[in-house]
Specification:
The protein is mainly alpha-helical. It is built from 6 helices and no strands. It is 65% helix and 0% strand. The radius of gyration is 17 Å and the shape is globular.
């Protein structure tokens, strides 16, 4: 998934959950979910592709070995500051990134591709380190499908921005 699709997926999950629970989402929850959806790639891709200190672009920050403790830590800090919903939004965003990176393997049940979730206890699934975001973007040809995807991304970004500007900074504590 591209960074904007990870962000959109996490945002969509947060909004659906909020609608189901009949609650309003705050700006800090929106920020937390979007930031958390980006962390795995912001950490792993440069360390694997450019600095070559990780075996794959899906290893350290894509591993549950880091994701779970980090999410629990953020939740604990948010809880201590009387806003656990922000910590939950962070955990949801992080989890949505990992789910977004596994949906194809889940659909086709290619379990060998799940090993990155337990790195370093299981081998990281190999990815071509030369395939970085800049090369991928440079290789995109503007077809009807790509134009549609860019249009949907632009509309989604505007919806998020409007939601962010309309939302309160934090949810009032009871």
């Amino acid at each position: 998934m591209y960074p904007w699709t990870h962000a959109a997926f996490g945002y969509l999950l947060l909004v659906v959950l909020a609608v189901l629970l009949w609650r309003r989402v705050s700006r800090l929850e929106l920020a937390a979910v979007v930031v958390a959806t980006q962390i795995p790639d912001v950490v792993d891709k440069p360390l694997a592709w450019w600095l070559t200190v990780l075996p794959s672009g899906r290893s350290l920050a894509h591993s549950l070995v880091l994701a779970v403790p980090l999410s629990v830590l953020v939740l604990a800090v948010a809880w201590r500051r009387a806003h656990p919903e922000i910590g939950l939004a962070f955990a949801l965003g992080y989890a949505s990134h990992l789910l977004g990176d596994t949906y194809d393997a889940l659909y086709y049940w290619r379990v060998e591709e799940f090993t990155f979730l337990l790195w370093p206890f299981a081998p990281a699934y190999p990815y071509d380190p030369s395939e970085n975001l800049f090369e991928v973007v440079r290789a995109i040809e503007l077809t009807g499908s790509v134009a549609l995807q860019l249009g949907v991304a632009a509309v989604g970004g505007l919806v998020f921005l409007a939601h962010f500007l309309y939302a309160p900074w934090v949810r009032p504590t009871a």
